[in-house]
Amino acid sequence: MSFRILKHALGLIVENFPMAVRITLLPWLFMTFASYATNVVVYGDVLVLPGMEADPEQGIFTALLPIFNFVLTIAISIWIIVGWHRFILRNEISYVYWPEWRGDVTMDYFVRAFFVWLVLIILIVSYAVLGATLLGEDKFSPMYFGGSPISFLVFTTGFSGLFMYVSLRISLGLPAASVGDTMYIKESWIVTKPYNREIFAISIILALAYLPATLITLNYNDVLALVLLVQVLGALHVLLSVTVLTTLYGVLKEGRELS
Asked: Are 127 and 161 within 8 A, CB to CB?
């Protein structure tokens, strides 16, 4: 069933790619431009590399700009994802190059996502502590190249799989919120329990699918063209992950059939 779910999700993207572009492209481009513009204003460069510091004499507006950009990124991301959820689940078609804005749905989605992320943050902190303990603080870093960088890659990919697994198990409330329904984290965990092996297999595949982007980031984080490539790969990976989550909701909660 794992491959059927992945095949179905990929099929949804491929068959509806023009609509995916219509829903996501312009908002994503604006979000990306805003992020780079913030880097230029605050740090004086498009790319922010380790060790770079903001100008200590910058004004209050410039100092608050990263926070504003962070909020903008969250709002646009939810706007895009809700639009894609609703297209798959309710066949809500966008006739312009951005999804319809639904303030009430977006706010409800944010609240659901906030509690999901609280759980995931606990997982991330546990991963960081465990990784630093097992590999050593000097080696547990994306910038680490000496000794055994393979250990870092294996550990990170394994964690990514676990992260995806927990995310898919507890996040069915997100597509539910996009269509005006309510599902809590506990209910999502219970509903997905009979399919935990299938979801685990999907999570490992999704983690491996992002490995090329991770390798590029490790070695070429100062090359703008490759950083842009990683962002495109990341956006496609998010699109696939969101489509898988939407597919799970449609199958497990709405009783839809896999094509």
From this structure: no
